[in-house]
Write a structure and sequence with these properties.
The protein is an alpha/beta fold. The protein has two domains: 169 residues, 3-Layer(aba) Sandwich (Rossmann fold); 119 residues, Rossmann fold (3-Layer(aba) Sandwich). The protein is built from eight helices and 17 strands. The termini are far apart. The mean pLDDT is 92.
Length: 318
Amino acid sequence: MSVLVFADSSEGKFKKTALEVVSYGKKVAAQLGTNLVALTVNASDLSELYNYGAEKVVSVSNNALESFNAKQYAAVVTDVATAENANVVVIDSSINGLYLAPIVAVNLEAGYASNVVDAPSSTSPFTVKRKAFSNKAFSNTTISTEIKVIGLAKNSFGVHEQQVDGVTEDFNASVEESKVKSEKIERVTGKVTIADADIVVSAGRGLKGPENWGMVEELADVLGAATACSKPVSDLGWRPHGEHVGQTGKPVASNLYIAIGISGAIQHLAGINASKVKVVINTDPEAPFFKAADYGIVGDAFEVVPKLIEKLKAFKAA
C-alpha cells in the first residue's frame, strides 16, 4: 500500500504544483501510515522531490511523452500505481491534470474527488474537503472505493519542505502511439507563467488598446508577477489566448490577483475566485468586480497604475 503523486514538469523542471502535490501526498501518507512515491515523466533533478517528502521517485523517460497526451500519461500513471500498489493517487488541478485525473480514475476503477483543498479530515471513511459552486462554497466528500484519486486544487495546501533520504527507480513504460499529433506548441519563455505565479496582474478592455499594455507588464515585472487578460481582450487579439483567465480560460488561484480595467463578468469571476487576495482598479464604482474584491480603487488606470509602480519601486529600493 502506498500514496502515489504525479509530479508534473515542464522542459525537465518541476512546476510549483508538483512540489505542492508531493507536500500533500506526504501528509496523506503519514495519516495512512504508509510511504510516498512520486512519479515523474522526462524530469531532470529528481532529488528535488526528496526535499518535500518523496521517499521514492519513479522516473519515466520516453521521447513519446515529450508532449502531454492525457490518454498516454494516464496509462503510465495507471501502470505505476498498479506496480506500487497505490491506494491513493494525487494529481494537480492544472489544465493537464483536469484531463488526466478522470481517465486515471476510470482505469483504476477508483473514486475521484476534484478541487480538493485540504488533507483528509478522516481516513475511515476517507473524507476530503472540496471547493464547490465555482469556489463559492465547500463540500465534504467521502470516497468509498478501495483506490482513491484526488485532484488537488492549486495553491490550497501549500509547499512544505520535509527532507527525507529518497531513492530513485527507473520505470520502463510501454506507450501506445497516439492518433493525436501536436503540430506546434507555443510556450511562454523568460516570464513568470500563470500556472506557477503567486501574483497575477490582469487587464481588460479598460486599457483601450494593446499599445497600452506596457504599464501592465511593468507592474508585473516590479511584482515578479505573471500577466493575464480577460476574454474580450484575447478575442480582440490584443493579447495571446494563453493569457486569457476565467472560467472559459485558465483558472487562477494566486495569492494576489490584480484586475485593471476589468468589469467582472460572472465567467471571469468564477475562474479567479480561488485567488486569496483580489485587488480591482476601475473607473466604474458599480463594476461587479468590486463586490468580489478584497481591495478596490475607483480611478483611471492610466493615473493609478503608474503611481502604483512608482510607489512599489520606491518601497523595494528602501
